[in-house]
C-alpha cells in the first residue's frame, strides 16, 4: 500500500537567482562587504565626476 500524502502535495519551489542575490545583499552577515563595495563605488563615481576638481589645489 502506498504511503499517505498529507496536504495538497505541493512542493516548495527553490528560490531563483534574483531572490538568492537579493537575500545575499540583505543578509546581516554580508552587510560590511556590501557597505564597503558601495562606498568604493561612490568614491570612484565622485573621482570620475567634475566634482573631483574640488580636490585640486588652487
Automatic annotation (TrEMBL):
InterPro entries: Tom6 (IPR020266)
GO biological process: protein import into mitochondrial matrix
A Pfam family of this chain: Tom6
Cellular component GO terms, alphabetical: mitochondrial outer membrane translocase complex
Protein keywords: Membrane, Transmembrane, Transmembrane helix
Spans through the membrane: 33-52
Annotated protein name in UniProt: TOM core complex subunit Tom6
